Backbone:
């Protein structure tokens, strides 16, 4: 659980409204955090269960390294809780109809079952090579009896979400050598948990 | 029906605050008319336009879901806008004219439909619009360009990505020109010039790109036009004879029902929603929906089949620089529509400014790269990536259409159901074009080349214009054949798609429409 001290925010962490900044109510006050900061502060999820969070984080980390700490689960959870039309997940371009939560949750349940069936343990306990094996199978629709949207489509959607949090930010873009050059900056750079505690 | 609020009467009532509606509103108030715009989406301001591919998604369609079927679905959510400025708020400002050979498909090729006008009818309107809104380009270098006034601003610069790909075209004996863009290469009419940072898709907040927030909406509001956001029009109202539209009914954000009356009504809510409103406006006088005695409302829905050719080059490309729409243009194969097994014109939009993420971003272009290989690829591509976009002509087919679904939205209104497939000849056009594109990239020295999927780009048709009231919905000015004072504006009136981006033509047609309205109303 987070504490008031953990999420005590400096002025810098009160980000202006942006795609990535997410608003949480803490002790009656609105606190705006990036997905990475929300994860570091262990902010409560609105839609996803703990099992769904760990499944999403592990499989996305296998697809897009760095997405776990970048806050993939916090980002997805926050957007799933938005009202129809306001969710900014790329799935809205791909023919997904809101609400998006059933699509994500059914997919995560299918991924969880696949992990249990093949390795007898949840994603969070898989080795790196086991995670890789499963995402390889998802990419090529090779997991039999997959009870959700096609695995390759879910792979594509989750990869896009993970790329959003890793490469779609000012710091993520600049880290690979793409100058961001914002007209209107979408948010402050990623906040680390340490920065928040200052 | 619960209580209905009956409100003031306006001279002109416009449904939709996009490119066409904004222009018509501006011209109408300048002629002394009282004008109300009803916009389904929320208010957008320039200060809302954050530079982020993620927040850019809020500019795209966020209204009632649109059902899609067919072998080439229309991609409504990506192609439609929502809120002030409509789809023109996020458009890429590639402002090209239709060519002379785009207007007579049926009579010249036995395919699709003819327009009720020709290029010469539209040319003066293109010329006037480009002078008002501003286009940067090089008319002489654009050797395929139909007759017309030269562009009012010099072309935008060509950056490394464009220069690298250009070599491939030239090696194959093909020509390229600067891409004409409604983006300022120099300050124009009080608006600043472009900074070339590739944020067009997120909406341009500095006024360099000609979106409605900086072109016609300020003129409309300065002249006294009103706008109501979050207002979803359900149907058009009519008088006892059924020939005259008397106003519209709409739902506000809280679900309250309102009626507004007007002397003239314009539907400019984009291709899908215009047809949806008409089909939902059933009455004893219009049992199949308003303006639908021909059974043509919803038919001939079109979208340009488009496909990316992508690659890596040894040279540094600086692909983040420039405009999202591209830097260069090639229309070498535009004049030849009948290619035997394939049919249609096509063009290349070359050297699109590219961001790391999102649907058209670097990462999404290579979904087969993931895990440990992804970050090294991203770092390399950030320096050496290049892409260009094939844009092909769609063949107008009556069975590609918008109908009303059994499913309902939050207000109890039927959803729009769309069906769109491309035929064998259009598929062959795409295959032929993309093959050429891969050859261009190889000739340009790409070390690696790949292609994206065939996708839908732009929405057109569904309320097509024509001479014959039995074969079309509206006349050459957008006035519905069945109605005296109901006009359609926007790309929905196109009887054929050509292979050029539609926004410039939307403006030119809207100018013709409003001048006709003002002359008759």
Residues:
């Amino acid at each position: 659980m987070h504490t008031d001290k953990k999420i005590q925010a400096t002025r810098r962490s009160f980000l202006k409204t942006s795609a990535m900044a997410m608003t949480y109510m803490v002790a009656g006050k609105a606190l705006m955090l990036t997905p990475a900061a929300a994860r570091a502060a262990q902010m409560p999820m609105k839609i996803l269960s703990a099992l769904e969070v760990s499944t999403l984080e592990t499989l996305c980390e296998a697809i897009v390294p760095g997405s776990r700490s970048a806050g993939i689960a916090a980002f997805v959870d926050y957007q799933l809780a938005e009202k129809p039309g306001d969710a900014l997940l790329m799935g809205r371009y791909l023919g997904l109809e809101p609400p998006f939560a059933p699509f994500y949750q059914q997919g995560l349940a299918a991924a969880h079952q696949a992990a249990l069936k093949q390795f007898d343990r949840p994603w969070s306990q898989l080795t790196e090579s086991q995670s890789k094996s499963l995402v390889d199978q998802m990419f090529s629709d090779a997991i039999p009896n997959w009870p959700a949207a096609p695995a390759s489509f879910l792979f594509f959607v989750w990869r896009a979400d993970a790329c959003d949090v890793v490469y779609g930010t000012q710091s993520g873009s600049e880290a690979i050598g793409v100058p961001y050059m914002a007209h209107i900056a979408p948010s402050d750079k990623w906040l680390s948990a340490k920065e928040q505690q200052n | 029906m619960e209580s209905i609020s009956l409100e003031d009467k306006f001279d002109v009532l416009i449904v939709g605050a996009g490119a066409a509606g904004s222009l018509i509103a501006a011209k109408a108030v300048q002629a002394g008319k009282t004008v109300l715009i009803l916009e389904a989406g929320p208010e957008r301001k320039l200060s809302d336009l954050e530079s982020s591919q993620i927040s850019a998604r809020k500019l795209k369609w966020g209204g009632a879901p649109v059902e899609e079927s067919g072998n080439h679905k229309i991609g409504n959510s990506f192609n439609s806008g929502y809120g002030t400025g409509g789809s023109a708020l996020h458009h890429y400002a590639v402002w090209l004219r239709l060519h002379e050979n785009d207007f007579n498909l049926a009579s010249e090729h036995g395919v699709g439909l003819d327009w009720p006008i020709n290029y010469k009818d539209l040319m003066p309107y293109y010329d006037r619009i480009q002078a008002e809104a501003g286009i940067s380009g090089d008319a002489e270098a654009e050797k395929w360009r139909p007759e017309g006034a030269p562009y009012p601003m010099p072309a935008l610069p060509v950056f490394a990505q464009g220069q690298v790909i250009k070599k491939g075209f030239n090696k194959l004996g093909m020509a390229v020109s600067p891409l004409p863009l409604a983006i300022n290469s120099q300050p124009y009419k009080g608006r600043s010039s472009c900074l070339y940072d590739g944020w067009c898709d997120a909406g341009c907040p500095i006024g360099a790109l000609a979106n409605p927030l900086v072109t016609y909406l300020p003129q409309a509001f300065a002249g006294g036009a009103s706008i109501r956001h979050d207002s979803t029009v359900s149907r058009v109202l009519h008088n006892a004879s059924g020939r005259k539209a008397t106003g519209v009914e709409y739902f506000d954000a809280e679900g309250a029902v309102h009626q507004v009356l007007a002397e003239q009504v314009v539907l400019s809510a984009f291709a899908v929603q215009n047809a949806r409103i008409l089909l939902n406006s059933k009455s004893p006088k219009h049992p199949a929906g308003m303006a639908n005695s021909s059974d043509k409302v919803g038919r001939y829905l079109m979208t340009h089949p488009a496909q990316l050719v992508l690659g890596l080059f040894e040279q540094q490309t600086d692909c983040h620089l420039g405009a999202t729409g591209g830097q260069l243009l090639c229309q070498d194969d535009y004049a030849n529509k009948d290619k035997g097994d394939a049919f249609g014109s096509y063009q290349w939009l070359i050297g699109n400014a590219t961001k790391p993420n999102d649907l058209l971003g670097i990462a999404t272009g290579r979904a087969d790269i993931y895990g440990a290989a992804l970050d090294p690829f991203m770092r390399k591509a950030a320096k050496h990536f290049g892409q260009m976009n094939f844009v092909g002509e769609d063949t107008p087919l009556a069975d590609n259409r918008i109908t009303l679904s059994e499913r309902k939205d939050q207000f109890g209104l039927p959803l729009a159901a769309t069906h769109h497939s491309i035929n064998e000849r259009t598929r062959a056009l795409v295959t032929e074009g993309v093959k050429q594109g891969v050859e261009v990239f190889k000739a340009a020295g790409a070390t690696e080349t790949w292609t994206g999927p065939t996708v839908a780009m732009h929405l057109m048709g569904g309320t097509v214009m024509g001479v014959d009231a039995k074969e079309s919905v509206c006349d050459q000015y957008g006035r519905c054949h069945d109605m005296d004072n109901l006009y359609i504006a926007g790309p929905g009136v196109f009887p054929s798609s050509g292979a050029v981006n539609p926004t410039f033509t939307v403006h030119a047609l809207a100018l013709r429409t409003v001048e006709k309205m003002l002359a008759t109303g």
Notes: Residues 101-119 of chain A form the longest helix (19 residues). Chain A touches chain B at residues 18-20, 62-66, 84-86, 88-90, 92-93, 95, 97-98, 132, 135, 139, 155-156, 159-160, 163-164, 167-168, 172-173, 176-186 (CB under 8 Å). Chain A has eight helices and two strands. The radius of gyration of chain A is 17 Å.
